[in-house]
Amino acid sequence: MVLLMGSMLIFLFSFISKRKHLLATLLSLEGLMLMIFGVLFWVSSMVSFSNFVLIFLTLTACEGALGLSLLVSLVRTHGGDNFNSLNALQC
Amino acid sequence: MWLSPSLLLMIISIVTSICLVISSPSLFISWIGLELNTLAFLPLLLSKKSKLASEASIKYFLTQTLASVLILVGGLWFLAPWGGLATLTLLLGLSIKLGAAPFHSWVLSIAEASGWVPLFALLTIQKINPLLMLWMFCHLSMPFFYVVVLSSLIMGGLAGLTQTSVRSILTFSSINHVGWLMTALSFSLSVGAYYFLIYLTTLLCSILIFHMFNVSHINQLPLLSFKPSNQMLLFFALLSLGGLPPFLGFLPKWMILQLTVSYSLLLVGGVMISMSLVVLFFYLRLMFSAFMMGGVNLTTLSSDPLPFSCLLCCSLSITGGYPDYFL
User: What cellular-component terms does GO give this entry (chain A) (predicted)?
Assistant: First the structure.
């Protein structure tokens, strides 16, 4: 359990950090969701709700697919998934 | 365009997500509603298919998934020995979803890139789900809630002073309104719902006028039209959004100020009043450039009368619905 929490924090840190490619960010998002899936499964074996884990897994897969389709649209408009090329929007 | 089957599916999904969050028995089911909301809003951002739109959709996706993860982890930590961190993480996730300061920088980027209809949905409809969860789980007695409300009010007011793009001005005014909305929800749901509905009406009025005239920058306002009635309409719509009496936008602000003072939350009340002045100033500055071209003889632009829907909404916002009996 502590291992799962620690890995979750590691993946969270990896998701937040400054990167060169969008694909690495999406990979760490998937890892984060996997760790949360583990924690949810552990917790739901102690408490009695266990149907949510499956729904959570479905939503994680949907989100991963959405992230990848956004990556594809980014590659189509910008020619690559580098974060350096996202310079059209300046705050 | 907005009734094409794919976009209609997305709009129905967003309405379904709101119904899911309203009627959910637990935090996890409302989390499903939040995820559905994010998933369904992204195609609305991408409806223009430009370089800016794909950048904006990536930024929206990354921030919203981070916020969803934080909300879920916060919900899980309620069962853990370190339960005090749970509400903090939950409130952190919900503030990122709302675009409340100090987590507001993503809203500005996305607002610059999108058309008027996705901007309206981003600033109002996407806020319904996180605000509902905020009402269910968080209260003004938490110190972090206080920090978020005060910084939203201050950042929304002061950072809007440096902006010249109309979309940025509306975004910062929305960040300011998020501070008011969070305070309203910590009193009761009906007060928050009342403020939200009136905010939606006044913002719709302003965005309709900007959309009709296709204005995106302060520079374009002198070319608005040479009928003073159109300029006055925009002026009153913006003042209603800012909360000046006797317009509609004043009523919910009055209600919240009265509740704030009666519960002795004087710091929040004081900051609200002073930041309202700052917000009204940058609306006024927007209209100065529109009114300044009075005496110049340019070639006359054709000025079509405004469509009926625009006038209906403006009469609702400016006079509280009284001329609706006559229109």
Answer: membrane
